[in-house]
Amino acid sequence: MSFPYIQSKMKEVGKGMTQGTVKWFNSDKGFGFIAPDGGAEDVFVHYTEILGSGYRSLEENQRVQFEVGQGAKGPQATGVTPV
């Protein structure tokens, strides 16, 4: 049995995802910046947008996948996951 509507929606889920490298992340303050692939401007990341359970942090030079939304002061990463 085929579910074309569901399959088309599944394809859309990853549509807005981009990848990049963590420039820096301050675990004490819970935020940092990601340099997106392709040279776009750096994107702010808050620990609440890192997907996972328990203590959520990122490491410098870590590869991540994320979506870009608009934060109060510019672009902000959402739905951040390690690659």
UniProtKB/TrEMBL annotation:
It is found in: Cytoplasm. Keywords: Cytoplasm. Signal peptide: none annotated. SMART domains: CSP. It comes from the Bacteria. GO terms for molecular function: nucleic acid binding. InterPro entries: Cold_shock_domain (IPR050181), CSD (IPR011129), CSD_CS (IPR019844), CSP_DNA-bd (IPR002059), NA-bd_OB-fold (IPR012340). One of its GO terms (cellular component) is cytoplasm. CDD domains: CSP_CDS. Pfam families: CSD. The keyword Cytoplasm applies. Residues 17-82 form the CSD domain. This is Probable cold shock protein A. The lineage of its organism: Bacteria, Bacillati, Actinomycetota, Actinomycetes, Mycobacteriales.
